[in-house]
Amino acid sequence: MNLHKFNSPLKIAFLSFVLISNVFLSCSTVKHIHAEKPINTHNKKIYTQQKKIYDLEKMGIKLSNKFDGARLNNVTQVNDTMIAVSIYPENAPINNSAFYAFKIWSTNPKITYVQFKYSKKYSHRYIPKLKTSTTKFTPISNENVFFLDSIYTIKLNLTKEPLTVSAQEIITSTDTKNWYSKIISSNPNLVHYKTVGKSVLGRPIPMLDMYTGNPKNKDIVVLLSRQHPPEVSGFIAFQSFLETLLQNNELSKIFFSKYRVLVFPIVNPDGVDLGHWRHNANGIDLNRDWGFYRQPEVKAVTKTIVKTAKKSDGKVVLGIDFHSTQEDLYYTSGTMEGTTIPHFYDEWFSAIDATFPNYTPNEIREDSTQPVSKGWFLRYFKATAITYEIGDETPRSFVKAKAKVAAIEMMKILNEK
Ligand SMILES: [Zn+2]
């Protein structure tokens, strides 16, 4: 349209309209999505953990929470051979994701019993994983676990070498960065790094933008993890899934010639490093904020997805959010008609099922009314979405093997699409 044909007032009016509509467009990149209001924890005080070394002088035992990912709120001596550790959530109400992590050592070798104490309403959830400076995290053996007076108690052989006792393997934001940095350097033409925003406490929210050639018009798959800090088994699945996509074989070459993958490996870095049970540094459940965008982490991730899709004329076709719960299961959407890949769930699960004859995946297929990522992908893009849940104690070798098959079968289905 040639503006010179307008007379002055009309021209100003037209330019104002263009200006206003551009401002409107750039402000409204992420629209509000209707969902049930979550439990309000906005005004619930955060219980800050005091970082220190607890010195039980008489017993010659010390404990520490002075490291990223630690959670230990108090230590007391019960008797000559027993101590109690108190573990509190960051704030409440909160799910019973009773995460703990501390180091313990003694001046002289000795056997010590450790009781776990939680505030009311909460109970022991995770089997302790033990690690020294030379060993990997390994679940404690059954013979060293007791219920004394209905309290979860463990028996430890202490030495002067610190023993890490943790609810799950500790994978901090630094560990995560070390992992994805290697992925980026080994796949320089495929994996493009971007910091998409900052957490409440200023930690970066990383994204790996994966594509070959020109990303324009490519359908988009979104992968995310660690909205909930202790859900490490889900993160281990996520790592194996991602590494399988990058195996550089024929299947993945075809996949990346057709698709762009936006990967958010750590959505809640503050919660992870602070040893939180579930929430971010504001005491909010991030997977109840998709649609409201009150938290900077969710705001950054959703805005990036929406803007990236818009800029490249790409369509978000699939979203997979990796979590952990008591057992392996998939939360899927009840609505399938009119979605991006209506046949995906049935094809995907039956292919995974066929590979592991002794394993039957549990699926809960319903539209969520809560503001969770799965519902957001469905409502915002009509996209097929899954919350991929791994059991807290599912053997890690199986977690990795299943995620590998899940990635291969996803690529097969999408390559055919
Ligand atoms: Zn979760």
From TrEMBL:
Q: Which domain of life is it from?
A: Bacteria
- SMART domains (alphabetical): Zn_pept (SM00631)
Q: Name one GO biological process term.
A: proteolysis
Quote any Pfam family the record assigns: Peptidase_M14
Peptidase M14 domain mapped to chain residues: 169-417
One GO molecular-function entry: metallocarboxypeptidase activity
What cofactors does the UniProt entry give for this protein? Zn(2+)
Membership in a protein family:
Belongs to the peptidase M14 family.
According to UniProt, the name of this protein is: Peptidase M14 domain-containing protein
